[in-house]
Amino acid sequence: MTTPPPQRRPGRPAQGDAPALSEDACLDVALAAFAERGFEGASIREIARAAGISHGLLAMRFGSKQALWIAAVDHGMMRLNRRMIATTRALPAAASVADRMLAACIDFLESLAEFPAIIQVVNIEGTQPGERLDYIVQTFFRGQDWPFTALLAEGQAQGVFRDVHVTVPFTLLAHGAGALVALRPLMAAVSPRTGKEPDGLARTIEAAASLIVRGLLR
């Protein structure tokens, strides 16, 4: 005799019945919401709905909206950092510092093309001082080791790169060249052919990274 499946009680599911929360997927949804609508415009309830989970479960996991913003920004920044480190470590030991810098810049822009929300959030928060901008600056620009910074210092010690502060080329990379891949609607409007060509984005990334590295050379 076949045992019938248990019947769920009417009403909301019990806490144990909630679907498992994929943290990375949830943070991607949250980061995209903060990138699109800003911190004030983003809603915890809308983020939960987009992630396919309950508002209560999201609040229980991350707490306040500020805590969710921090977790989402950490997630996006650390993904960029890990990818850049992996790329530079995989290069041949005999590669020149300029070639390694070019590879790091290309990988950074490819990462932004795949996950543009993080640079969009930084662009939003960078327009005015506040605790969220302070968090980004202290945690990632001053408290995190980036291959770009180490490669620039190495090239300067060798006399290969110009003696400029890291903020100059990194800002050109992240917010200059980065805009080419993060602001897709703008680029599609300005240069419609680039978005339609199969290798258009790849060629744009390589050209932008090459210009930055060539500009660093003495």
Care to describe what's here?
Pfam families: TetR_N. It comes from Novosphingobium arvoryzae. One of its GO terms (molecular function) is transcription cis-regulatory region binding. This is HTH tetR-type domain-containing protein. The protein has helices at about 25-40, 45-50, 55-60, 65-90, 95-115, 115-125, 130-140, 145-155, 165-180, 185-190, 190-195, 200-215. The chain contains 12 helices and no strands. The relative contact order is 0.10. Helix 5 (about 95-115) runs antiparallel to helix 8. Helices cover about 70% and strands about 0% of the residues. With about 220 residues, it is an all-alpha fold. It has a domain at about 75-215: Tetracycline Repressor, domain 2 (Orthogonal Bundle), CATH 1.10.357.
Q: If you consult CATH, what is the topology of the domain at 74-216? A: Tetracycline Repressor, domain 2
Strand fraction: under 5%
| Contiguous helical run count | 12
**Strand element count:** 0
Please state the second-level CATH architecture of the domain at 74-216.
Orthogonal Bundle
Radius of gyration: 21 Å
Structural class: mainly alpha
How would you state the average pLDDT, rounded? 84
Contiguous runs where pLDDT drops below 50 for at least 5 residues:
1-19
Give me the strand/helix succession: HHHHHHHHHHHH
Oligomeric composition of the shown chains: single chain
Q: Supply the CATH class of the domain at 74-216.
A: Mainly Alpha
Distance between the termini: 83 Å
Overall, the morphology is globular
Largest sheet: none
Helix content: over 70%
